[in-house]
Amino acid sequence: MEPRANSQEAPFAVGVDVGGTKIHAGVINRQGDVIAEHYLPTLVHQQDVISRIIEAIECVVQKAGPAFQGTPFKGIGIGTAGQIHWETGTVQYGLDLIPGYTGTPIKSILEQKFSLPVYVDNDVNVLALTEKYFGIGSKARHMLCLALGTGVGGAVVIDGKLVHGSWGAAGEIGHMSVNYKGPTCICGGIGCLELYASGTGIARMMQELQERKGIAGNPIPIESKEVVRRWLQGDSDSTQIMDEVIMALGAGISSLIHILNPDAIVIGGGVAEIGEPLFGPLRDEVAKRTMPSLHKDVWIGPACMRNRSGMIGAGLQAWEYESFSL
């Protein structure tokens, strides 16, 4: 079953969150209620991603049930990993995580397939839309969002509007430098925040610490989840690593507060699932590094809808941008 062409008063939209390992599609309404949802593995080495996105859309509309047959949809929103040319809905630069993704004209392909308006943006930008309407952003006009996962993504909301920049890449917070003498990042920069505050960064730092201590040769590197588990149990090596994570995040967030003077900073993604053991010391670190006049009213906390935020925010684009001629 395919979603039917939209009407101005259509009560539903399809949202799709596209990652390197899975695709999460949902049918939502304007209030952010999830009517149906469906997960598919991305299968990046077996199929092209756009085919999997189409399959996910068809599956979730089918899952919504017979009651949706003939129901008009407002549109389709895609939130995806990578840098997105916002006006054309094309992947300007894909990640190594999704081979061959660069240059994919997602918007035009899906509009031709479904005869619906299609909106495409970076996955953290759409997470920010969820926060804008249903999280702390409903009370904050100026907000920053960070997503700490395999990498570190970011989004900037100023005066209630997402900042896209020249073509859509604004908010690459993970690639601001927090150590000018640090290691080289995959982006070519030096000491990027992503090298310290991402899941891959945590695993890398633990591997390097083991090598320095002469524990090299472990055929199975310790993953970030295991580092976090050991940290929460008081392991000294893991504590050393997580102290680095918190200091790097604190330095980056402090710089952003000084530059942008936000009301709120929302942090999502897998690393943020640690919860208060991370947020407590992080708030202390930010306070230590930030001018009191700028820091005193800033809220720092977790994303409101966790793993549904990306999918819901993707769908919300159908209402957020309906007056734009994209």
TrEMBL record:
SUPFAM superfamilies in UniProt: Actin-like ATPase domain
What is this protein called in UniProt?
ROK family protein
Q: Provide the coiled-coil residue spans.
A: none
| InterPro entries assigned to the protein according to its UniProt record, in alphabetical order | ATPase_NBD (IPR043129), ROK (IPR000600), ROK_cs (IPR049874)
State the family it belongs to.
Answer: Belongs to the ROK (NagC/XylR) family.
> Domain of life of the organism in this record?
Bacteria
